[in-house]
Amino acid sequence: MHIHIFIAALLCTVFTIYPAPASGTAAPQLNSCPPLIDEAGVDSSNWTLFTNLDEALACNHKPRLLDFTIHYPLRPSGPGNVLRACTSYQGEILNLTSDKNNSSLSRNTQTKSKLELVWDDTDERVIMPQAITALKELQSFLLTEGYKDRQSIFSQYGDTSVGLYIGDKVVPSSTANVVIEALMKRLGESGIPKRLGVQLCGDGRNSDYTSGIIIDTTPGADSLINAQVAVSGWSNATCIHGFQHSTNFGSFLVDTLKEDTTVSRPSNSSASKLSKRAECKTILVKSGDGCGDLAQRCGIKAADFTKYNSQTKNLCSTLIDGQHVCCSSGDLPDFRPKPRPDGGCATYTVESGDFCNKIAAANSLKVEDIESFNMKTSRPGTKKPEKGTDLADLNPCPLNACCNIWGQCGVTAVFCKNTTLGAPGTAKPGTNGCISNCGTDIVNNKSPPSSFMSVGYFEAWNQDRPCLWMDVSELEKRSELTHVHFSFARLTYSFEVDVSHVSYQFNKFKKLKGAKRILAFGGWVDSTHPTKYHILRNAVKMENRLQVAKNIAAFIKKHDLDGVDIDWEYPGAPDIPDIPKADEEDGKNYLGLLTLLKGQLGGLSLSIAAPASFWYLKPYPINNIAKVVDYIIYMTYDLHGQWDYDNKWASPGCPKENCLRSHVNLTETMGALAMITKAGVPSTKVIVGITSYGRSFKMAKKGCVGPMCTFLGSSTESLARKGVCTGESGYISNEEIENIANKQATWWIDESDSDILVYNDTEWVAYMSDSTKKRRISKYQGLNFGGVTDWAVDLQKFGKLENSNLIEIIDKDGVNGCEQEDKCEDTQDSGPAGYFILNSFTSIHTTFKSLWQTVDKVENGMQSKLDQLVETFAPDVDESSEFNLIADFLGIAVGMFTAPFFNKIMQTKDSPTVDIKDLIANTASWGATVAKDIQNSKRETPKSKVAGKLSEISDLWTESIEAFTEKAFRGDDESVDYIGELIADGKFNNDEVTFDMSDLRKQLRKFFFAVLIPEAWKVGAGYAPAFVMDSGYDCNAVGPLDYEYIAPSTGEEMGYCYQGRRYYLLALNGRERNCDPQVPGGTGGNPTDCKPNYFTALQGIDNLDAKNQGAYDWGGITAQDLVAGAVEGWKANKEKNGGGCLDLTKTSNYDFLLEDNQGETLGLSLVNLPATMGIEP
Question: Where does the LysM domain start and stop, copy by copy (predicted)?
Fold first, then answer.
């Protein structure tokens, strides 16, 4: 831990550092895990800074190295700590430069030392591999340059913290190769207790010759706090006590450095220019030293030592670690540092084992001297300010955000509350303080706008969704709107304006009367899609921006519009998924384009949309942009969403990182408004966001109320119920919300001034009702903001051609002449029965047609994927090898999605009756039998090429459905009986049947790949077939298989949670152990010293991560799904492997598919992956 002395008043109470450059301070606020050590380097001063212990431990699922002061106790909660951390894996560390010459061999002495082992009783909850992993990280770090000249380091993984202390005279590589290796062997044989320590201490050793390792598995912050206490004790040359057991760990040959007695006067000291005969030779006092020890190290008698140091009163009772003492006659040298030639102060880099008295003694100073030197200081490297300049203003944060005493920037009270103790850079214990731009008040808002704007965004694509359609012409009646933003126009690759995708609505938009007509460009998709993001990034570059400005302005003028709005999300952003990191110059380039565009537009309007996030707004030169544009659409919404999951920084105070929070939280909105006005934007140019949609979540617990309630899913997958019209989990329109709220639901306004709706027990939605909008608008108007902007006006109410009954969309098939009769008199010659029978026949025919169309579309879309499937998941497959297609596959495919399909059609409002379930199972099994017969009649040799074999299966799908349909209407006794069962009791006389073919297509594609991807893995060269391993622990377990089955660096990516238990999706790559001398870790064939071969990640597994799926979407199947399928298959086969697939030609095997919402999940039980289950911790 390296810091510079310049804030001495704080230095003596809290371990401090100089403020870091503002450009790099916000990264940890988006990611709870610090960077890898191969990125951050071995110098801990470059590691990520944490001031809160909870935040430092948030990344407990990855092993990390930590560095912090050992003499100032860690605070268990809240700010006030200073820890630096990096993520660490042994492989990455060993790739760095190893310190093979940790010390000169000629200066080493090998000493046989007896170490003590202390421990508490074993705790069954402890996961032993965590300790092994944490120890290996320390072992590896000891062998790098990073450990040189330091005494302590910590590692943390899961619930396990490991602390290490090595005295200055103990060679680190000796501890790494001898002591830690022996300790790991012991743990492997005996297991890990709750606490365990190995120490070399006592017997007259001072801190230079003391060393120790502490392992603590106490859950939470206590493990690291306990480790700090042990390391601090060793630093003071004291042994740790209070354990339940102790024993001799063994005698080991430990390398130590030879004693070196030299004059240690620094070159920049202010010692008087006396001859060397006037100064004594000196050594430094170490913790644990007495005067007798010091005399022995000097090589002189005790009486001489007392004589040489007689100028110091009561020396032997006041010895301080770091103090200089004389070993010869002469005066004690003056070790006080002198100022730099330019008048700047001398600085000292503080180490983790330092404390104020030690630093003062080593520099011939008093603690009071250090405090007085640091009353008015600036960070090293700061340009010397003019006289009278406020030092707090020398290194401001972006956007004029608050800067706390650690040099971190932010806009909340944690960063903005000034708790100074007087001297610059100081803060009360337990706070982070604030040194510049403090406060969270809205500023720059003294004058009201000339008129208050009401902006409405119109989604021109809204008629692409199933319902909730609005025609732009309807907005003429919305007299309250002053501006309509038509979203979105596009820029082509050549920077031409394109509205062809929304031309129908655009042509009406041009004729709109009343509100200002503003054409908007960009939006999330055009800004971030992997095939589109580069257009806006290139548009702002110097060589392109003039042409872009001319093209846009010309288009606006040609169509007689009132202005343009640019919604680029977001310039300079380094972390948007699936696209490259943005250019740091984006913000400056954006300003250049806007300046040119404003000039080209003349008097027409120009606006931009800006994020209400410090992290994303930071790259904008927003103060200067505000001088160019007419107004700024400020997106004070989407403050929370599904993306908060597993992100501790998104929801402060949420221990589980997935708390239900409103995306339109008023407190956070006010903070965002303070941020943009403090950045220099006048309030009159800020148009504040309100919404006509809600953010929805699947609650983890029914009936939970309050900010600590949590939601389910992941950061990339919402489990919330989809809106009927919007069709997206996690996002639902106000009109859909109103339709739900009018039924059985619970509704209230919470402390965030948001409307909260809970329905179906666990569906939670935060939104703005009309009354909440009015309340917000009044508040913003009173604060002199320029207006409000609503996303989006077409989400508020049904269009004029719709009504609430259309929330249930009816899809009728009238193309083939087979449609239902509306009235009984249309069939009067055959009577009422004829009416029902005819309509039922029509429904059955339409059902089969829909089924066939679904399969046909899936088959057509899959053909292009087959070669890619082989290339991705079996790239080295021998084309002549057998691709073991499952004999029952086609029948299973037909049965799998036929059952839910008919189930949805025939069931009543209540759950299906037993009779209906039997009929559905009979229908699906009949189709499965037909399909299986077709496949068996056309089976080819197993030597067929892989892609060709897959193509054969997809071709047979449509043929199977055709045969199924033909057999149902053949007219023989069997088909008549079957049709009779279908139409009995009016099951097919329902004229409100909804055919959601898109969901069925998705399900079939997902099932197809769930079966074929594991098959591809079976033939991949160099890998054994994939399998699923049960860790034996619950989902929260960290590293349960590390170093026994898998390497920690790959363990996280192969672990998945299913039904509360952690599983791993693995493959064996090669032999169990590697003894090849040509491979790192190989030993030339010595069976007792070979490198273990761990299970490995499967080929193409990255493509099965939901957040990585895009161009090669594998039907939405994820690795998580495959794990669930393997587990369910194992259960369905009576907890055995090798049972093959479920026979869906039998009606008895359909019960599980007909449970509500179970078809897709449990259907994956047919995944053909073996499972290794029941490993006990």
Answer: 281-327
Cα distances (Å, whole numbers) of residue 121 to 32, 658, 889, 1165: 33, 35, 54, 42
- Kindly tell me the burial class for residue 473, based on how many C-beta atoms sit within 10 Å of its own C-beta (0-12, 13-18, 19 or more): middle
Task: List 866's β-bridge partners, or say none.
Answer: none
Distance CA 1038, CA 1044 (A): 14
Cα dihedral across residues 488, 493, 498, 501: positive or negative: negative
pLDDT at residue 964, rounded to an integer? 60
Q: Collapse the DSSP code of 1082 into the 3-class scheme (helix H, G, I; strand E, B; otherwise coil) and give the result.
A: coil
Considering the candidates 351, 459, 569, 736, report the single residue annotated as catalytic: 569
**All CATH 3.10.350.10 domain ranges in the chain, comma separated:** 276-347+354-373
Low-confidence ranges of the chain (pLDDT < 70): 1-31, 90-107, 146, 259-277, 376-392, 424, 742, 744, 801-866, 876-970, 978, 981-983, 985-1004, 1019-1024, 1070-1092, 1106-1113, 1138-1168, 1173-1177
pLDDT of the residue at 957: 53
Q: Which residues of 851-870 are buried (b: 16+ CB within 10 A; e: fewer)?
A: bbbbbebbbeebeebbeebb
Where does the chain hold its CATH 3.20.20.80 domain(s)?
Answer: 453-692+770-795
Per-residue pLDDT, 804:
46
Please say whether the beta carbons of 358 and 322 come within 8 A. yes
882 burial type by CB count under 10 A (0-12 exposed, 13-18 middle, 19+ buried): middle
Amino acid type, 502: V
Residues 6+ apart with CB under 8 A from 276: none
In CATH, what number does 453-692+770-795 get? 3.20.20.80
Residue 265: predicted pLDDT: 46
The amino acid present at 359, given as its one-letter code, is: I
Q: What is the pLDDT of residue 891?
A: 47
Is 569 tagged catalytic?
A: yes
Tell me which residue has tokens 């029952």. 888
For domain 276-347+354-373, give the fold: Membrane-bound Lytic Murein Transglycosylase D; Chain A (3.10.350)
User: CA 374, CA 423: separation in Å to the nearest integer?
Assistant: 8
CA dist., res. 455 & res. 485, Å (int):
7
Helix (H, G, I), strand (E, B) or coil at 711: strand
Burial track 936-969 (b if 16+ CB lie within 10 A, e otherwise): eeeeeeeebebbebbbbbbebbbbbbbbbbebbe
pTM, to two decimals: 0.72
488, 694, 728, 732, 796 from 470: Cα distances, Å = 15, 19, 18, 16, 10
Cβ atoms of 192 and 182 closer than 8 Å: no
- CA gap 99, 88 in Å, rounded: 18
CA dist., res. 958 & res. 858, Å (int): 9
Q: Which residue in 137, 111, 133 sits closest to 38, CA to CA?
A: 137
Residue indicated by tokens 């390497």? 1047
Whole-angstrom Cα distance, residue 27 to residue 35? 10
| The pLDDT of residue 305 | 96
pLDDT of residue 917: 45
User: For residues 217, 221, 222 and 225, what is the CA-based torsion angle, rounded to 10 degrees?
Assistant: 110
Distances (CA, A) of 16 to 4, 68, 236, 622, 962: 8, 10, 21, 32, 76
Of the candidates 677, 669, 751, 668, the one whose C-alpha atom is nearest the C-alpha of residue 707 is: 751
Contacts of 1075 (CB under 8 A, 6+ apart): 1082, 1083, 1084, 1085, 1086, 1087, 1090, 1091
What's the token pair of residue 1177? 């911790």
Interacting residues of 906 by C-beta distance below 8 A, sequence separation 6+ = 912, 916, 919, 920, 982, 987, 988
Residue count of the chain, please give it.
Answer: 1177
User: How far from the centroid of its chain's Cα atoms is residue 586's Cα?
Assistant: 24
Distances (CA, A) of 1049 to 65, 90, 1026, 1042, 1095: 14, 8, 19, 9, 12
Q: Is the dihedral of CA 787, 576, 737, 901 positive or negative?
A: positive
